[in-house]
Every structure is written in structure tokens, then in C-alpha cells.
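Quick one, T. Sequence first:
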Amino acid sequence: MVLLGVGGLVMLTGAASACPTITSTTATGQYDAEQQTNARIIVTVGEQRLIPVRGWVIAVATALQESRLRNLGHLGDRNDHDSLGMFQQRPSQGWGTPAQLLDPRYAAGAFYRRLAAVAGWQGMPLTVAAQAVQRSAYPGAYAKWELDATALVTLALRNSTDTAVMPCNATAGWLKPVPGGVVSGFRSADRPGHDGVDLIAAKGTIVRAAAAGLVITVVCNAHRRDGTALSCDVDGNPTSVLGCGWYVELLHPDATVTRYCHMMRRPPVVVGQQVAVGQPIGLAGSSGHSSGPHLHLEAHIRRPATASNAVDPVRFFADRGIDLTSG
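C-alpha cells:
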């Protein structure tokens, strides 16, 4: 995902480019600090839940319609039933307690939970997806906020404190998939069969696509030495379990492949899906042949990715302007 200025408004696209200056008066002039902070909370919760970017835009647009991105308490006679918070969610309809719904993080998470349960939401027009969650008396009202929501999501990403968020922190469309540095190198003397590098990553750290590409593999391959398949939804073991656990491979436009191993649960991407640089593709964990949470990262010069075409990721990423060694 990158940022692209279109007609004075910053839009989200799927191709890599330099990070532009935000000039949208929609995002920077019309909305105050409180509204921008609430938009940033919605984006952060979406990232943490591995909701695709489209979901962040839908959520922000919904909050714009319902509250103008204000965390509203009970408004007395002006209140719509018992509606509360940014999304005007109702305790009486099972959204949560009043205290929970006035917590912007909780409210955003509640919205995303219901959005994720809507079959096919990613292919729906924004107003249809939002209405499937909110069931508003004005089902067409959300559409008019799509451009503003897009600009606010873009602004939230630009102001993020996560140093690995978007290509503003990348070079030539590449970035580090997790913030941590290398703790175990490529084919070292003590690990000659180690075809990648291990990067520091606490359990649950978002793993991001290092560059735009096509998902070509999503696999759980944890197994015993006799070939017996094992679950990847639990922590592995360095002595009794072999394999990468849950892992993803991306094929990039230059025909190279990157592999991301030891995810903590099934990654939220599927084979054949196009992903953008910086897009969340999973959560770091310790599945498979692993002694603790980290990201095992491999780089291959062609497909299929095998030991024979694996190259040192530190050098591979350095050639693309990215330092994997620092954390």
C-alpha cells in the first residue's frame, strides 16, 4: 500500500511509489486534532486485527457518518435510543456496556468484529458494507464519506509511530517486515542449514509484506522427523518439531521470492492474492521448528524457493536500501 495524490486528495493504492506530501485540505483542514486522533485509533485497531486497508476506510467513513469522529456520550433528547461513542453503537443491541462503547479502541474492535463476519464485505461498495454492520435507517448515507475517510486513513498512516508502517519508511518500495534486527544469521558456522535470518519479533508482532507481490504459498508444514504432520496453531519445538510452521511466500515483480516463517496462526492472506508493500500478512509466533517467537525471513532469487536459490537476506535487502541488522 502506498500513498498517491489524486486531484488534491491523497488516495491509497497498491503500487509502490515515493511518499508524497499530504496536501488534502479535506484531511488537514476540515478535521481537528480530536477527529484525527480518533481516525488514527481506528486505523491502529484495524492493523492490530489484520483487517485489510479497505476495512479501515469503511470504519472511518462509518464513524464520520455516525458521530463526525467524536466520542459522543448520551445526548439526552437528541440521542438516538441508547446510542453511544464514535460508531453510535447500542448497549441494548449487544454491542457492549456503555463504558466499553465509550472506549474508542473497544468500539473500533466491535465494529471490525461485525464487519469481518459479513461475507464478501471486501468486494462490496462502502455504503453496503457499512450498512451490513450498522443497519442504519439511512443506508445510503455512508457513501459520501469515502473520500474523506480515505484521506484520514492516509493521514493516520503518515503520522503513525510505527517505524515499519508504510513506504514513507521504505526505499524503492521495500521495507523491513518487522522492526527488530537480526539475531541469527544466514548459514552461519553453527547453523549451516539456516537458509534465512531470524529477526527479533515478540509474539503477535505484525508481519508486513516486504514489497508488493503475489501470495504464492500459505502453508502449515510443522511435522515430526518421521513425517507426521503437526498443528501450527501451537508453539513448536526446536528438538521434536521440524518445518517453518505457518508460513507465507510472496512472488515479487522482479521474480524474487520472500518467505516469512513461524507465524502464530493461519495468516490472513490467500494464494493468488495481490498484496502491497507494508500490508499485514500475519503475526509473528513460534510455530514449527522454533525455540521462541521471532520471524524467520528468507530471500530467493527465483521460484520455486529452494535451498539452492536462497541468498543472504541481509545482503538482499541491503541491495534494496534496507538494513535488517538494526532493530
